[in-house]
Design a protein that fits this description.
about 260 residues; mainly alpha; 2 domains
């Protein structure tokens, strides 16, 4: 069954380009223009990093990410952002937050529409977007990686394969994953990207962003709180090894 999930999801990924809707780069091109107008940046000029930080929420954690990931131009420690740099940085922050570009872009645009840049400039730094939830999901993601590698002397895999994710989550029915990826264009695009950049299949396609998306989806359809499901999966993983879990499945479930 788990092998069938991998094949089905891969087939979904390979047909992603037939789905209508904006790509991430198109979304971010629109967002860049929205940020430029909101920050009163003249046409043709790049957006300052300070205005970028104000636009995305003036979060202390995002400021730290800005310092870590922004390129320098040799002359200025904090060069202004052109569209390409804006896109790279926004995607990087989304990846670390475990959110999809389309969702966070929409929330940033809505946030900007509700207040001016002057109001943000005079406000206190924010602790936004459920930072405790983000931390809890990152801890869960790492726990899954460690569980799958228990007993191995090899370094932890960066991502998680589909079967490993299903084992950790105790999923024996492909409906949950199929529904999620069929109805989430950007999740399919991200899955396709991860497959395309891993032709040797030595890394799984579930990165932190996809892990968060599917985990939240499972919570929503089962009526579980995020905290409860994280704790339950950790406890069940601690109680048995991957091999013990696989051996507990019926022959049909292993197929």
């Amino acid at each position: 069954m788990l092998f069938k999930i991998s094949i089905l999801l891969l087939s979904i990924n390979l047909t992603v380009n037939t789905v209508s809707g904006q790509t991430e780069d198109e979304i971010l091109r629109d967002l860049y223009e929205n940020c430029r107008m909101w920050s009163n940046t003249p046409p043709g000029e790049n957006i300052s990093q300070l205005h970028f930080l104000y636009y995305i929420g003036k979060s202390t954690r995002d400021f730290a990410r800005l310092i870590t990931y922004i390129p320098t131009d040799g002359n200025r420690a904090f060069p202004d952002l052109d569209l390409e740099q804006f896109t790279i940085l926004f995607k990087q922050i989304c990846s670390e937050r475990g959110v999809f570009v389309k969702d966070w872009a929409a929330s940033r645009k809505f946030l900007a529409s509700s207040r001016t840049i002057q109001e943000v400039a005079h406000s206190q730094p924010e602790h936004t977007d459920n930072e405790d939830e983000e931390k809890a999901l990152k801890d869960s993601f790492d726990d899954c990686r460690k569980w799958l590698s228990r007993g191995s002397s090899e370094p932890l895999d960066t991502n998680i394969d589909l079967s490993g994710f299903c084992w950790y989550m105790g999923i024996n029915d492909n409906t949950v994953l199929n529904d999620y990826f069929k109805n989430n264009q950007h999740a399919r695009e991200r899955m396709e990207y991860n497959y395309r950049n891993n032709l040797n299949l030595n890394q799984g396609p579930i990165d932190f962003t996809l892990y968060c998306g599917v985990f939240r989806h499972i919570c929503s359809i089962n009526g579980d709180s995020l905290e409860d499901l994280i704790a339950r999966r950790k406890n069940e993983a601690a109680a048995r090894t991957v091999h013990e879990y696989i051996m507990s499945l019926s022959p049909e479930e292993r197929d």
